[in-house]
Fold this sequence. Notes:
A: MetI-like fold; 12 helices; 71% helix; B: 12 helices; 24% strand
Amino acid sequence: MSAKEPSQPARAAVGSPNSIGRSTRSGIRGPPNYGVRRLRNAVMTGLAVASILIVLIPLADIIYLFVVRGLEVVSWPALTTITVGTGVEFVGGGISNAISGTIVLIGLATAITVPLGLVGGIYMAEFSDNNRFSEVLRFVADVLAGNSSMVVGLAGYFIFVLYFGWGYSALAGSLTLSILMFPYIFRTTELALRKVPNEIREGARALGSTKSAMINRLTLKFAMPGILTGILLSVSIGLSETAPLLFTASFSNYNFNGAFLHNPVGFLTYVVFVYSLLPSTSAHNLAYLSSFLLITSILAINVVARVVLRRFSKV
Amino acid sequence: MMEEELRPAPNRGGDKETRKGEIETMTQNLSEERAQDSGGLISLAGLNAFYGEQKVLTDITLSIARNKITVFMGPSGCGKTTLLRTINRMNDGVRNFRVTGQVLLDGTDVYSPEVDPILLRTKVGMVFQKPNPFPISIYDNVAFGPRIHKLTKSKSELDQVVRASLEKAALWDEVGTRLSKSALELSGGQQQRLCIARALAVKPEVILMDEPASALDPGSTTRIEELLVELKENYTVVLVTHNMQQAARVGNSVAFLYKGDLVEFGPADEIFQNPKNPLTEKYIRGVL
């Protein structure tokens, strides 16, 4: 019980040790209300577990529903043929137009956002020294991240579709998506770099390393798992967006034709959003199939992100 | 040179009497060595340092001899680390930090505008209090400096530099067969010697050591101290420590700093056996 003795032998020898504030009860048996404390602990643990279950049930339900329904309707033709008909009449066929459009939109948005987010995040963590400008940047990024995607979509419509005159197009859609994806890459890059211990920077500096050599060879390397996770999460954010694309990509029944301007493109969330409200089983099936693809790909991305983070973060 | 006598005896850590005698013989040896002093490589003249409005170093003037170990000694917060970091301008990036006065390296003021801090740091290496190996392989740690400064032309030349640096840091025998292993697998003392090897690989003239053994166990400390004494054959060493025994064991000259002032600077034996300033004497007696 006398934990103080080794560190302060001189003091321990004088006076009566361990007499301050201790109960007269000796030994290691708990105080009289110990049973109550244990009971309270058990109740609280039970409540915590119960609340986790309450959250998990709807999630499991969603996944179950869409996986079961998705597996019922998934077929090679449904994945490889284009949609036939529009919302006003009969809708059927497959969703290859939405799949190819989603891949193009997300791919282009990622290609635009990753370099910008990386450069921004690297600036924030390695160069900004928390100056005024960086505070403004961080504020803007936070506002962007917290913004309604509907509003961002409307802004994209005004700027890209109307003002630049690109019409409903892959480029307008991708740029609008990248506005929504940017804050995630930007902030996770900064945070991942800030997690790299400063001793490493000092060590590199003391060897006469320039900042760029240090970033390229050391800090970026160790922040990479975190940065990759941020990129993957922003891709899954992009995948699940609907509103901004309604404003900027519209929808098309045809596969992506290679034109980035003036041609509307299809995307999966549109199929879910619009076709689930149509009064026909064939439309519902397409919506289920799209939901299934979205859920599984987002799930896969999150699993990959976790594996990357766990496997490669050693710092 | 009489390095052999200067090395601490292997069975150190006995009773206090032998320890004291040992320090006396060592300091005697040092004073003989000092007779052949080869002049100052670094001289500080009227150096003041500030963090914002707060003055942390006041009018420091001293000369650091080539191929010697100069010790900055003093209690925590006395400014010894700041003083060390002015020599290779490591505090350049620190906000509101500013220096007045001169730090001359071989006659050139390191704070003059034409001096490139990057090049300065290749001449003046540094080892930190806490071992800070990069979380990469042992080989890559040592090769980091030569690679960024493109000091070697071929892989075999780089291999040689890595090996020579590890040998100089007395680490080759322990890690020579596992260079591709992560540096983080090494013990604390090995990591610190790796950091020394890493600094040596860029072929500096001066090595600044900021309490390099304070985070290590006694055995590792001994090895580092032995290494310091070996290193001064080829390098000028500046050592910061709050450990007087260490200062006495390895130091040729000792500067005692207190609250930002240079209280006393002189040959190690004079400082320890015959301190002129009552503050120094108090510190040595352990009552400051």
